[in-house]
Request: fold
Amino acid sequence: MAKLDFTSSPVVDSHCHAFLPEKETRPFETYLTLSDLPQRHEDVASTMLHHMVIRELSRILCVKDEEKIIAERQRRMKSNPVDYIELLFDDAGIETLLVDSGYPFKETVGYGIDLNDFAEMVGRDVREIFRLEAALYGLLKGLVPHDQAIEDFRAQIREAVSDGCVSLKTIIAYRTGLAVKPWDESFVKSSWGKMTAMVREGNRPAAILSERNERNKSVYDSFLIAGVEEANRLNVPVQIHTGMGDSPSMDLRIANPAHLYDLLQDPRAREARLVLTHGGYPYLEEAAFLANAYPNVYIDLSETIPIVSVGLRNRLLTLLEMAPTTKIMYGSDGFNVPELHWFSAILTKKALAAALDELMNHEGLAEEEAVNIGENFLTGNAERLYRL
Ligand SMILES: [Zn+2]
Reply:
């Protein structure tokens, strides 16, 4: 039995996504996996994550039997999403959501979500995270010449921050990987020129930007370095996707945060606060090492939470082996359905209590200190880092 209890603690979800009830088109269980590939129902429904979500839904909906639980969930979500989301978010103590507006992105999935409408629907404080690749997409689509594109890119960042964005975010790990390095400017310019020429020839910008080659890498790397420089100037952090992600587009081999070595040495990135989003899972130890070694590196555990399900207590203990407790943050990476935002917080509160109990029992951690660490993980560290 856990001694510590964070059940009623408030939560800042430091990385998640907006969702629209009317865009839910698939069976509920398919939203509990990171795969875009068709999966057999019995496989998805057999994960520990699925079992745990169903169990918590049974508790909150007061319904037994899996089929009836899902049916009741569908009924509530369709008939009155506002009330249903309120029930979930109140249960989890979610107060603030930092929303990565890069997904859903109208140009790639066919719809976007206005964050004011989303904030109204969920009834919480919602802050935007600005996705750098969305800006890059617009510049390529608009056929903006290279020098102008870099200028416009920086200007868009400044405007986003002055409009209230609390962080920048990059998914370069999905594209050309985390081994970001400086490139010769003339090479970048010619790469950009080739890409705009391809758009002129009728190729889709999204298809061009998905290619993994030297040409794209030089462009992604250079824009990211410019973005990091701008973030530092504006005193906002940059969330960097690290580790696992949507499959098959994520190539895990280039998403290990250890690949960030060159970027971390770059004088333009030295002072900028970089957040290793998703904790680099399964490279959590690499992420923890970087947060320990570099004063400007932070970690959020979104996506690792809730995907690691029964493993979260152990993952938190692994993180605490090296990562300073002042630099680690909660996040859900919830997307498409509100249950991911909700369940992640519920799961975390239990696992956090269990992990800290263990440190109190076996390592002599004082209770006051343990409570502090837990509360900083759930809210305090994010409030300070993102100046909420
Ligand atoms: Zn995300």
